[in-house]
Amino acid sequence: MICAVIVAGGSGSRMQAPVKKQYLQLDGIPILSRTLMAFDGCSDLERIVLVLPEPDLERFRKEILLPLKLTHDVRLAVGGEDRQASVRNGLEEAGPSEGVVMIHDGVRPFVRAGLIRVCIAGAKATGACVPVIAATDTVKQVDDSGFIVCTLDRDIIRLAQTPQVFGTGLIRQAHQRALVNGFAATDDASVAEFAGERVHTVPGDPDNIKITHPQDLAIAGAILSRWREEGIG
Q: In degrees rounded to 5, what are phi and psi of residue 224?
């Protein structure tokens, strides 16, 4: 089974908006709806698991899920106290351990079908695969006081995106090991690395942005306009 676990359990405090960022609209459509539609259009996919804060479940069903009329089976999981806990809850609904699971940020609505397929193929071949893009700025490591410690070689620096794709059994075991050892990470590739797994990378997509800050909405609007001009979406 190939399953997508879409994580939308955050509060969106950095967006500084009256509603959570996943429900903000891009040209009249909620960001989360656009993300779901992107995965619903993936023919290889068999199930979508959406992880949401418990108070949002009923609102999601009424305002997003029912109007969308998605073709795939969508199951809901309750978010945890942090992202890792939310992913663990989503993995419980992901299906058999011999399957493949994609873990994706709910506020990355511009994920292309081609990238999804490449990541699935990479995970089937290697066990774990994530999309990455090169760093274009000079990257500095700083200390707690804000002073530069060193300049990192940006030629070997990559910025991780989602979907991050794994064998379901592999990533479940990795998350359990992280839980037992109190290891916290900002993405699932780090969890797999902590468990001793090698994670393969494939080229990501600069359009596959994570909408986190208010300025990201303007960038998202520009991407959407360009996609329309190119006949995408």
A: -60, -40
Write out the DSSP string of 141-200. EE-TTS-EEEEE-GGG-EEE-S-EEEEHHHHHHHHHHHHHHT---SSHHHHHHHTT---E
Number of domains in the chain: 1
Buried b (16+ CB within 10 A) or exposed e, 206-216: ebbbebbeeeb
* Residue 95, domain CATH: 3.90.550.10
Range of the domain at 162: 2-229
More confident call, 98 vs 78:
78
Q: Rounded to whole angstroms, how far apart are CA atoms 185 and 170? A: 17
Our CA dihedral for 117, 119, 120, 125, rounded to 10 degrees, sits at 130
- The pLDDT tens digits for 220-231 are 999 999 999 988
Kindly report whether the global pTM for this prediction surpasses the value 0.85. Answer: yes
* Residue carrying structure tokens 């009256």: 18
Are the C-beta atoms of 31 and 104 separated by less than 8 Å?
no
77-91 pLDDT, tens digit per residue, is 999 999 999 999 999
CA distance 93 to 114: 25
Q: Give the separation between CA 52 and CA 22, rounded to whole angstroms.
A: 10
One-letter amino acid at 25 equals Q
Euclidean distance between CA atoms 141 and 191, whole angstroms: 22
